[in-house]
Structure formats: structure tokens, C-alpha cells
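Could you please consider the sequence and fold following this short note?
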Amino acid sequence: MGVAAVPGDPEGMRRLALELEREAEAVDSAITRALRQSQLMIFEGPAAVRIRGQLDALVAAGRSTTGSLLDAGATLRAGAARVEAERAAAAAAARAAAGAANLFDAGKHKP
């Protein structure tokens, strides 16, 4: 994950969100492969219980990590949209203020 988001940079935020989503996909894919491999093995005895418990814990941790990565990506995407909306509102306010100033200035110069 070599992408860095810059606060206030919607495109950077979206790039990082995409990278987090890709990482989540990679974690999920690894979990799926591990589960498939474990299903091919025959476990018996006390070690089987221990191995299954460890695998279950690893799967739970992986799923939690996947969820956290996806949540972070969604937060970044929402933040990017919020930054763009704030910028658009600020630009609209600036245009309105400039228009009002122009009207005011035009009124001052009436004969």
C-alpha cells in the first residue's frame, strides 16, 4: 500500500480507499484459500480440535481485518465527497459574494 492520502485531497482519498479495498480483497482471498486447503486435510484427535480452533481464530481475525479495511475505505470515500461538497459550497458563496459586491459597487457609481 504505497498510496498516501492527503487530507483535503478528494482524489488522494479515493485512491487510498481503492487501495484499502484491494487489500481487503487480498485478505479475503487468502482466507478463502486457507479454508479450502483446510477442508482437504483430515484432522483427528486432540490436535484436530486445537488446529480447528486456531484456524477459526485466524479466519475471524481475517474477516475483522477485511471489514475494517472496507470501513476505512468507505469513510475515505465519504470524506472525499464531503470535501468536494464543501469546496462547491465555498465556491458558490464566493461567487455570490462577488456578485453582491459588484452590485454594491455599481450602485455607488450612479450619478
